[in-house]
Amino acid sequence: LPRVFSGMQPTADSLHLGNYLGALTQWVKLQETHDAFYCVVDLHSITADFEPEVLRQRTRVTAAQFLAGGVDPERSTLLVQSHVAAHAELSWVLTCLTGFGEASRMTQFKDKSQRYGTDRSGVGLFTYPMLMAADILLYQSHRVPVGEDQRQHLELTRDLAQRFNTRFGETFVVPEPYIVKGTAKIYDLQTPDKQMSKSLGGSGCLYLLDEPKVNAKKIRSAVTDTGREIRFDPAEKPGISNLLTIYSALSGQTVEQLEAAYDGKGYGDLKKDLAEVFVEFATPFRDKVRQIVADTEGLDAVLARGAERARTVAGETLATAYDRVGFLPAK
Ligand code: TYM
Question: What EC number(s) does this enzyme carry (predicted)?
């Protein structure tokens, strides 16, 4: 089977709807046809502010959300990044193959280092993309399902794979991004020209584990556009188009079906119905996450099994890469 790898950071108490629609729903589909590895990237998450005990809890809750969202641990390998030492090890080699200018051009690095300022920005923020490349290349991944915001990191990953292969001989599969049109960029409900994100946060961001009532209210207060027609038109009607995208993804109806169903109705009707659709999805999801987290031992056992399988696959790739680079094997 072809491989997929993807990851999410345990940086909030809950995933938001962008993470869910942009990535997690694709993960669940791809596990049907791929040997899938899905990772809680805790090493990445310490590039921003964190508290040790909170990080530990968020790591479990993030994994629990993968499971509640439909990742099947019998079929896919669910792992925590820090459980597999090879991620940090390969990342060093790739860091040494990356140009300073090349890394400086990463837009996520530029945005975040500007936001945090030079004193609160660690060097880890700069080397973050090389760790991400290591994640992907260790599993010889063919496809990487992510949202639009990760595209540039995947291009760097491909460049690094090719660079390594050219210099040291064929070692890594060169991965393809798997970025699904439509849901690859879910926008903030209050600022529909910006993507939904935890850094924007606030009333435009739907956290899956928040009180359903709170989220319903956020949906009903979403910014809409001038005019009154319910039509998918991202340039003229970014707010309504985003709501249609979300509605379509959560309900399984196409955007065209929704446009027809809301012909002649108002923005308020659309928002009220979408709020209901969201609550119907989020309520059982929250319950499932709670159940999974309550069985800490069961969850940790799933992660232990995942780590074991991941170490085998990643260890093999790392050994080959180390050998190609010319590191002396330990006898
Ligand atoms: P992270 O944790 O920020 O986000 C997890 C996934 O959610 C997607 N996403 C979105 N998709 C659509 N609309 C949005 N508004 C939205 N916001 C976030 C992200 O694109 C991502 O797919 N660097 C990665 C984590 C990572 C990784 C990897 C991913 C580390 N190693 C290896 C793939 C492969 C990140 O910070 O994702």
Answer: 6.1.1.2
